[in-house]
Amino acid sequence: MNYFGRKGFLVILTLLVFIGLWQAYVSLFHIPVQILPGPALFVSKFLKILTMGDMGTHIGITLYEIFIGFLIGCVTGLGFGYLLAKSVLLERLFNPYIVLIQIAPKISIAPLFLLWFGLGATSKIALVILVVFFPIMVNTIVGIRSVEKNMQDLLQILKANRWQRFWTVEIPFSLPSIMSGVKVSTTYAITGAVIGEMIGAKAGLGYLVILGSETYDINMILTAVLLLSVIGLLLYMLSDRLEKRLLRWHESQELIM
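User: That's the sequence. What structure does it adopt?
Assistant: Structure tokens below.
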């Protein structure tokens, strides 16, 4: 059995053990189905909820908020990170305010965004941008400043212009750090979208969590949470795949291989 075969076998085995423990817990302690249904019952309810006419709309709205917010957050984070990395003055001017906004609890900022942008997707996108921006910016700064001094001296000797330095040195040196920020930001993006939808929304998976809580529908809550987890896993796997393709030359990928 090759590496990928063993890895797949272990994943399936872990899932089966989890399902077995779940069923044992429900059966031994006689947990009411309103609190936690058994695996078989949940699967049947899950499939039924998935076939609801508006489930595709809820999933699509959440994906839209995550994708747009993540894209804008990455672009702005990269831009600001590069500017702050190249200018100590700009970093001293803006960094305290950026950190202040970042450390503010997002669940307390979400109501403000709802007041400013309404119950639609815009307020959730703004929240996703906010949570994605900071890790991308910080990792970009770290990456740009990781360029070795010997390399910088060599570029000066070769009289490389700003554009040549950017493409031939700064991008390759900063890419590992940036991709680490991208992978972390995928999970933050989902959290931001869900927080916004749970505070106030007309649709979305976060909205279904709140709806299930208000109607005491544990199956709807578990379905929304499971779908969000799957989306998060897929996004992380995509970012990890992108990292491997972009950093095939980097020593970190050689260690993985």
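The chain has two domains: 1-31, 35-256.
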